[in-house]
């Protein structure tokens, strides 16, 4: 019938998207996908054209994407680092998931309060998010201590100004889809090094500080402390850091799988590798450990429900159900 409205097409997607129908959302997503594909193709063509210029080729030859590490730099990935890599990823998935749940939660089904202070109620979701945060911080502190105690810090902390031109060279090679030659068992390329340094020593501290300001443990009655950073500023920082982490993880996993998946997975999940970049290139050990880690994480995400969390939360306080 002419002029009749499609009830499905007119369905709204919440207050923030009140002006968009289903059809409009499909159109926006389609246009966005086209723009993304065209933009990516343009970037690849531009990068390949740049690499055809003699001056740029000379630059890439001089700065291949990686510089020589200090003589004291260790070779390889120790078992403790492989374990912490998994545990950090495990916690990060749960932290991001519960963080998004906290933002969406309107009527919590269960609440937690500390012993002796039953009036200080918080939702069970917030309690779980903050409990995960504590584990993540402890794991991070252990990681940093071991990093400097074993010399592994030289692999992710820039030790030469050559990191900048080498990072630019590596970025150009990545965009051109002509992957830079590397062996992460010996050294990361400069772009990776800057990325890992940013995650460990910039983004993570920002996440901890902003998260502490937002936590229920923050002394909200102390005006002097609260003047240092407002809760709104802390929330904006926290959300932006989360977006950075998600973007980093997405790019990181994509490149791991696209640049020698079995070899890279052996490095980070099985702590197996060699100065010979071809070694372990066909060894599936790291892959199966990767699959196991994904399975464990998926099970944890599925199990993180009030029926499972409540008995655990009761060990540390009181749980009440709506």
TrEMBL record:
Record localization: Cell membrane
Residue ranges of domain Cytochrome b561 bacterial/Ni-hydrogenase in the record: 79-269
Membrane topology: Multi-pass membrane protein
A biological-process GO annotation: respiratory electron transport chain
Keyword Glycoprotein included in the entry's annotation: no
SUPFAM superfamilies: Transmembrane di-heme cytochromes (SSF81342)
Family matches, as InterPro entries: Cyt_b561_bac/Ni-Hgenase (IPR011577), Di-haem_cyt_TM (IPR016174)
Keywords: Cell membrane, Membrane, Transmembrane, Transmembrane helix
Main localisation: membrane
Residue stretches spanning the membrane: 25-51, 71-96, 124-149, 194-216, 237-265, 285-304
MF term (GO), any: electron transfer activity
Any one of the GO CC terms: plasma membrane
Name this polypeptide is given: Cytochrome b561 bacterial/Ni-hydrogenase domain-containing protein
């Amino acid at each position: 019938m002419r002029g009749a409205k499609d009830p499905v097409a007119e369905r709204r997607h919440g207050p923030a998207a009140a002006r968009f129908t289903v059809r409009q959302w499909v159109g926006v997503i389609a246009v966005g996908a086209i723009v993304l594909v065209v933009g990516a193709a343009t970037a690849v063509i531009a990068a390949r054209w740049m690499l055809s210029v003699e001056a740029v080729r000379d630059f890439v030859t001089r700065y291949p994407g990686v510089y020589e590490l200090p003589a004291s730099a260790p070779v390889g990935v120790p078992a403790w680092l492989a374990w912490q890599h998994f545990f950090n990823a495990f916690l990060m998935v749960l932290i991001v998931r519960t963080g998004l749940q906290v933002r969406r939660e309107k009527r919590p089904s269960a609440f937690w309060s500390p012993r002796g202070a039953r009036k200080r109620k918080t939702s069970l979701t917030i309690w779980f998010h903050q409990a995960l945060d504590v584990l993540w911080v402890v794991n991070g502190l252990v990681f940093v201590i071991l990093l400097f105690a074993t010399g592994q810090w030289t692999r992710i902390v820039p030790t030469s100004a050559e990191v900048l031109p080498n990072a630019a060279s590596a970025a150009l090679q990545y965009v051109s889809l002509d992957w830079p030659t590397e062996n992460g068992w010996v050294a990361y390329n400069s772009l990776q090094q800057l990325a890992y340094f940013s995650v460990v020593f910039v983004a993570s501290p920002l996440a901890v500080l902003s998260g502490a300001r937002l936590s229920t443990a923050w002394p909200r009655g102390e005006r002097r402390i609260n003047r240092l950073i407002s809760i709104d500023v802390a929330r904006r920082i926290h959300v932006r850091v989360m977006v950075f982490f998600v973007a980093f993880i997405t790019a990181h996993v994509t490149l791991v799988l696209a640049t020698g998946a079995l070899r890279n997975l052996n490095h980070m999940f099985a702590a197996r590798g060699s100065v010979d970049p071809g070694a372990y290139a066909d060894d599936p050990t790291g892959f199966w450990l990767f699959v196991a880690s994904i399975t464990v994480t998926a099970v944890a995400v599925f199990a993180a429900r009030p029926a499972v969390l409540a008995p655990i939360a009761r060990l540390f306080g009181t749980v009440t159900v709506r």
